[in-house]
Design brief:
There is one protein chain. The protein has helices at 13-31, 36-43, 47-71, 75-86, 93-99, 104-132, 134-143, 147-171, 173-201, 203-234, 239-250, 254-264, 269-294. By secondary structure, it is mainly alpha-helical. The longest helix is centred in the last third of the chain and has 32 residues, at 203-234. The radius of gyration is 18 Å and the shape is globular.
């Protein structure tokens, strides 16, 4: 059986370009909800925000490294786990927070802060933990990543759309209110279609490794949710803040991970399958966690 570490998944340049545009629109849609009052409210009591960002940008990659040492997955899958953990908060976390009765303002501000922080923390964590584990170090050394190009990619598809969305919501609030829901729905639908297409187009490898990938993503994702919950709970944060931090830590921007994987790792098999399945699974797990929170 062909080793997935030696497999390069197919994903056309046109599909990659569309995925870049879709993710940019998703981030643009998120920032249309961002108001200066939200910043003031969240920053006036910064402990929850600080804990949430610590979980997402610091503790989650560290915990992921521990899981890799424990389970010793195939190198490309291990690097896929590190990639996902190094990405900022996912674009559906705000919606899940609203379903869960969480602090939506905190969720939105955390998503924005972690997305901007991705300019530094995504390449930093990917390099730190990827180089710390010998099997993944071999991949990083062979690929010879251009870290400046990674930062530029994150700037173009994450940071600039957030800035533009915030500017439009500030100067044209009526129009922003009118377009934000259609943009979010259409861009999310397009993202799911692209991810599903990537999985179907490479179905032979996905079916071959689904058992292993499913288990890895299940444990990794559940551990991420648990991390956010336990850290915020141990610091006695308000219930609504605990829910937001839990959801933000468990839902990662796997779309960004896929873009980086296909742009800089040529669609390396294990990395792409892990990130793509995470993109589907965290929607399912996010609904489950939100449902549980809404009932307690």
């Amino acid at each position: 059986m062909e080793n997935i570490d030696d497999v390069v998944l197919s994903f056309s340049e046109d599909s990659l370009f569309i995925l870049n545009v879709v993710l940019a629109f998703i981030m643009f849609g998120i920032s249309l909800d961002l108001k200066f009052a939200s910043f003031r409210n969240v920053l006036s009591k910064p402990i929850s925000l600080t804990l949430g960002l610590l979980c997402q940008l610091g503790l989650l990659p560290l915990m992921t490294f521990g899981l890799i040492l424990l389970f010793k997955p195939l190198p490309s899958m291990a690097l896929g786990m590190i990639m996902v953990a190094s990405c900022p908060g996912g674009n559906i976390s705000n919606f899940m927070s609203s379903l869960a009765g969480a602090n939506v303002e905190l969720s939105i501000v955390m998503t924005v802060f972690s997305s901007i922080g991705a300019l530094f923390f995504t390449p930093f964590n990917l390099n730190l933990y990827g180089m710390a584990y010998a099997p993944t170090r071999e991949i990083l050394v062979a690929v010879e990543l251009d870290w400046l190009k990674i930062v530029s990619t994150i700037m173009l598809i994450i940071v600039i759309p957030i800035i533009l969305g915030k500017a439009i919501s500030h100067y044209f609030p009526v129009r922003a209110e009118r377009i934000k829901k259609p943009i979010r729905k259409l861009s999310m639908l397009a993202f799911l279609i692209i991810v599903a297409f990537a999985l179907v187009n490479n179905g032979v490898y996905f079916r071959r490794y689904i058992g292993l990938v499913f288990l890895l993503v299940l444990v990794h994702n559940a551990s991420a949710f648990s991390l956010g919950f336990l850290v915020s709970k141990s610091f006695s944060r308000p219930s609504r803040d605990i829910r937001s931090i839990t959801i933000e830590t468990g839902i990662q921007n796997s779309g960004l991970g896929l873009i980086l994987i296909f742009s800089f790792f040529s669609g390396l098999g294990g990395m792409a399958v892990v990130a793509a399945w995470w993109g589907i699974w965290h929607i399912i797990s996010g609904f489950m966690v939100s449902f549980i929170f809404s009932r307690i």
